[in-house]
Structure formats: C-alpha cells, structure tokens
Task: structure prediction
Amino acid sequence: MSTSPTSPPPSWRSILATLISVAGTGVATYLTLAHYSAGVPLACPDTGAINCEAVTTSAQSVVFGVPVAVLGLVFFVPMLVLSLPWAWRTPRRLVARARLAMSVVGIGFVFYLVYAELFEIQKICLWCTSVHVLTFLLFVVVVTGWDDATAGWVDDGEVR
Result:
C-alpha cells in the first residue's frame, strides 16, 4: 500500500477561473469562426444599438492586423492553462505572475473595446459583451486570489 502524499483539492478559485476560461475560449472560437467563415452567422440582432455585425466588421475589430476575435483566443487559451487547478497549486512564481499579468492586460484591452463600441462604433455586440464580462470576472478571481496563489512560492529553492 502506497502512502504517497496527496495534493490538496482544487480551490473554488481555480475551478471558477477554469470554467470562465472555458466559456471565454468557446465564445472567442465562435467569433473567430464567424470572422473567417461566411457560413457561420452571428446569432445577434443586426439593427439598432445592438448590432454584432457592425461591431465585428468595424475598423476597431482588427488590431495590428489581427482580428480581435483571434486575440480573444490568444488570451483565453493560455488563461485556461494558467487557471487549471495544478497551476493554482504550483509553487512557481512565474505561473501566478503570468496569470496576473495576463488578466491585467485582458481587462485593459476590455476597457479599450468597450470604449470603441460605445463611442466610436456606437453599437454593442452581445457576444463581445459576454467576452468582456468573462474577462472581468476572470480578472476579479485572479486579483482577489493573489494571496492564495503566492502562499507557497518557491524562489531559488526557498519556500515563502
């Protein structure tokens, strides 16, 4: 009979961050497919203030030549990996710092996108809004869990 140590159960933060990242990856994948394929319709109203088509085809939907939907994937896929329970339990500083840095960059980009929707495009995309909300929730989970993430940091062989 083996008496190997067991790792602690996943925290609610890691589970919630993982679920948010999975949802964000799903929406970003849908928006990326809709961007590149005429066969994938945007299931969103296209008249009035809510108009996903106007938002996703606007000049602001591409940043540095990259569609914002693809940038969503570039954000959520690594965040998914960094949000898995093992990543929250690892004593490596780099993982917690990368998760924090990505969430800060993500929320900063959301501020830009919301500004662009409200003041430049003057239309709202419901799918984009869901990504904005998911990014905000992920940011809150990561920032409020900073103490948990750094509790057992290892740096040059020393545990804090």
